[in-house]
Amino acid sequence: MSAEKTPPAGLHPIIVKRLLDNLESNDAFRTLFQQSPEQALRSIGYTDAWECMGLKGGATLASPEQIRAQRTKLEEAMTGIQKADCVLEAQEGY
Predict the structure, then answer these.
(1) What are the angstrom distances between the C-alpha of 92 and each of 21, 57, 66, 78, 85?
(2) For position 85, what pLDDT does the model report?
(3) Which InterPro entries does the protein's record reference (predicted)?
């Protein structure tokens, strides 16, 4: 019998804003995020563990344009209860 895991709560709206702002406009931050989401998050003040943040192997980070176009959706997804998928992966047909 396996215990059910409670999905993690979403990120604080201030952290989401900092994260998306940096992913839209800061190439060094984007590179850091792709290499180490944990270090990137810590650099903007987030210290809790968040299992769903890393990109899956072979996945690419959404472009700044995709993030900008989907900003409202991303903010809602990232501040709500989290699913297993990283919402920041590049999406086809954004």
Answers:
(1) 21, 17, 10, 19, 15
(2) 56
(3) Mod_pep_NH_fam
